[in-house]
Fold:
Amino acid sequence: MPKDVRPAQPDITDRKTGQRCQHLFCYRAQLIGAAYLNDKLIPILCAKAGIPESDSRGALTSHRARATIATQLLNAKDPLSLADLQQWLGHKPPSSARYYAKILQRTLSAAYKKADYFARNVRTIQVLIDRKSILTGAAARGEQPWKYYDLGEGYCSYDYFAKCPHRLACPRCPFYVPKQSSRGQLLAVRDGIDQMLEQLDLTDDERDALEGDREALMALAERLADTPTPAGPTPKQLGTESAFIALTDLGRKPPHGPR
Ligand code: SF4
Structure:
């Protein structure tokens, strides 16, 4: 046997469970002391693995694995009760188990915060789907749009409307279809047009502009005056930077929970 390999060790009684088992940090049939383990061995192992010796919860110690598992057991889909966790941890005073419940509380608060953000920034937009364009393959061949986002006075026929930086203040690039045009009027009466709602995630900047007045939208449009539209030209080049179509007719979507 190479001299660097630790010889086989006997089972030693686990002080928490009372059961005899193998221990990882064990030498000459003795458990390695906590001070040596935490102050010397774990820092050496961290250096070898190329990871920091501490994280946001403090130094990495021999206790950390149990703490991580305890937190996961409490945050699981079918979490352990505090009493069960206390037993699993082998803790006599319930205060230790309650420490992990506090972590759970923090996790829940973060989830609620996220849900609140979701409720504030998510809207829905009405979309027309042209079934004929899909079924005839015209959409796949790029000959005809198949999706029309309702902007109020007209439609945006760009498939990736959600990615358009001008979506709240549309400068009417070539993807724009006015409702008053013959194409727009046909869409309203033609067979094979389905309606659906699509979710739109707003940035904070967009939400502020949407909840503000026309001036807030003007300011947003001004900031984007030199940003190209998906069709290519910028609002300035189109000459429509201050004659944009304001997207105001958006629905609010109740959150189903944090995502
Ligand atoms: S700029 Fe073009 S792609 Fe963007 S919302 Fe307006 S029509 Fe659609």
In short: The pocket of iron/sulfur cluster is lined by residues 156, 158, 161, 164, 166-167, 170-171, 173, 175-176, 229-231 (CB under 6 Å). The first strand starts at residue 12 and ends at 13. Confidence is low (pLDDT under 50) at residues 254-259.
